[in-house]
Design a protein that fits this description.
By secondary structure, the protein is mainly alpha-helical. 75% of the residues lie in helices and 5% in strands. The chain has helices at 2-41, 44-50, 54-145, 147-152, 156-187, 190-208, 213-234, 237-255, 318-322, and strands at 277-284, 295-302. InterPro entries: ABC1_TM_dom (IPR011527), ABC1_TM_sf (IPR036640), P-loop_NTPase (IPR027417).
Length: 323
């Protein structure tokens, strides 16, 4: 009978892992496509205000979706399994000796509250660490894309110094994250304190309330097993919080509707057009630098089929006209 149960458990575990892994891959693939479509939908002002470099977008498309995929494929099912073990253990404990379980339940509530606080702190730290890493990635991406210029002006040392300075913020956040993880590991020690208290109270039940020693031991074991399962489940909060932070950023981009929406089909549809390009009294400034006026009453007309050369000094707005 035990052999049959083991075979059934093996098949169920295989199907569980396969289904969750498959779901994680499909969700991540779909998320990448939707996120990239949302990025391409944004207007130029979004990239000027909210995106520091292309490295940030590449990191979101690849790294952030991989974090979410890992959580959906492994961490989330592990968390759900441990939560199910926790509730199942306490249900069995209530059926065996409810007096002992009721006394031990407040300690478990304490574990849950501390675990929720731990997960919230980790999510905030994960979001800040992601921003710090994006700053460092921007420096690296800039240096590699202009590596010849860096070599020509002997800027290797300066680039390394900037990169090291950018990493200092993530180091400080990593230390805080390490303290939180140590605190979470210490929380698991409460399980042994609960076991000691249950042994003491169980002996009182045997001596003064007629409880059986086997029932006390079985109920105490279910409480401890449930507490350990809960502790193992709470250890996944770090990864779930990181995935939540990454998903929050991706969700904000997906839900953002740009001021100039390429998917908005409202307005007048031109049946016939000549191909002329005309700027008429244009006033323009970049969203990130509104105090710097690029164009003021700018006028230009380019007839269809003609080639026009824009001549001017550096910063006069030639590239802005083309953009």
């Amino acid at each position: 009978m035990i052999l049959y149960l083991a075979c059934i458990a093996w098949i169920a575990a295989f199907l569980e892992a396969y289904c969750w892994t498959r779901t994680g891959e499909r969700q991540a693939t779909r998320m990448r496509a939707i996120y990239l479509k949302a990025i391409l939908r944004q207007d130029v002002g979004y990239f000027d205000l909210h995106v520091t470099s292309t490295a940030e977008i590449i990191s979101s498309v690849s790294n952030d979706t991989l974090v979410i995929q890992d959580v959906l494929s492994e961490k989330l099912p592990n968390f759900l399994v441990n939560v199910a073990i926790f509730f199942g253990s306490y249900i069995v404990g209530f059926m065996i000796l409810w007096q002992l379980v009721v006394v031990g339940f407040p300690f478990v509530v304490l574990l849950v509250v501390l675990g929720l606080i731990y997960g919230r702190i980790l999510m905030v730290l994960a979001r800040k660490m992601r921003e710090e890493y994006n700053k460092a990635n921007t420096i690296v991406e800039r240096a590699i894309s202009s590596v010849r210029t860096v070599y020509a002006f002997v800027g290797e040392g300066k680039t390394l110094d900037e990169f090291s300075s950018a990493l200092q913020g993530s180091v400080k956040l990593g230390l805080k994250q390490g303290l939180c993880k140590g605190f979470a590991s210490g929380i698991n020690a409460i399980t042994y304190a609960i076991w000691s208290f249950l042994a003491y109270y169980g002996s009182r039940l045997v001596m003064y309330h007629g409880a059986k020693g086997g029932a006390v031991f079985a109920a105490g074991t279910t409480i401890v097993v449930g507490g350990q399962a809960l502790g193992a489940g709470l250890s996944n909060f770090k990864y779930i919080s990181e995935a939540a932070s990454a998903g929050e950023h991706i969700r904000d981009v997906i839900k953002r509707v740009p001021d100039i929406d390429s998917e908005n089909m409202e307005g007048e549809t031109l049946e016939k057009f000549l191909g002329e390009v005309e700027f008429r009294n244009v006033v323009f400034a970049y969203p990130s630098r509104p105090e710097t006026i690029i164009f003021k009453d700018f006028c230009l007309k380019v007839p269809a089929g003609n080639t026009v050369a824009l001549v001017g000094g550096s910063g006069s707005g030639k590239s802005t006209v083309v953009s």
